[in-house]
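Morning run. Coffee first, then this:
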Amino acid sequence: MHSSSHKNNNSRTHSAPAKSKKFVFVKSEYKIIKVRFEDILFCEGMKDYTQVYIKGKSDPILTLSNLKSFYSKLPSDEFMRVHRSYIVSISHIDSIARNEIYIGKKIIPIGDSFKTEFYQMIDSNS
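And here it is:
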């Protein structure tokens, strides 16, 4: 008997099948925190770290993971990279003005290289 290795080759780098996972485990300092995607407002990258801002919490969770690798764990239909230092939760955007995104009291810039894709997403949801 030999087992045929029929793994499907269409593996996506970004996002597991939507809705199957509703959370991510985030290593922060000496503990592991379960973070629900719906509670993430936005993420801010700082060199080798990512700060994850959570609804209802004043302090972000600091994780030793760069923004790019953290982004790969987020569902692509709910989160969007809008700047080299920022990922936003699309559902938590309050308003957009002059290439800035408002989430609560935070103002997040939209980077030039991300504008086209961002505004396409806005158009398709308008």
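The chain has one domain: 23-124. Good start to the day.
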